[in-house]
Amino acid sequence: MEPQIRVLSTGSREGWRALVNPPGEAGTGGAEADVFATGPFTTGLWEREPDTWSFERPYHEIAMILSGKADIETPDGTVHTVKAGDVLITPKGTKGTWRISETIVKFYAIYDPPAED
């Protein structure tokens, strides 16, 4: 099969699916859409309504924030505010707490290499 150019719109949400059991204290929802995946590399679009939850990143992720606003607090108390136009880098093993104040949409690229023996 020959490679094909695709365009996904963040405006229409066509092809997006609801998040299944998203974490959070408020129980808000969200959606995501797969864009491209090959081997240990995956990209997609992700949207989340205001909520708060803690995380530990099981893979490397770089994300471009397309809209919205959130604070991400690290265990040492540092607060990183992200908003439209920012690039968020969360290496594997990083921990923190998301506090989304305005529905956030991001384009993400995940690198999840196979475990070494």
Proportion of residues in helical segments: under 10%
Total number of helices: 0
**What is the CATH first-level class name?**
Mainly Beta
| Spatial shape | globular
**Within the CATH hierarchy, at the fold level, what is the topology?**
Jelly Rolls
| Domain module tally | 1
Question: What percentage of amino acids are in beta strands?
Answer: over 45%
CATH superfamily: Jelly Rolls
**Any idea what the radius of gyration is?**
15 Å
End-to-end C-alpha gap = 34 Å
Q: Pick out the low-confidence regions.
A: none
Overall structural class, as computed from helix and strand content, comes to mainly beta
Please identify, by name, the CATH architecture. Sandwich
Q: Give the SSE order as H and E letters.
A: EEEEEEEE
Sheet with the most strands, sense and barrel status: 8 strands, antiparallel
The count of strands amounts to 8
- Arithmetic mean pLDDT: 93
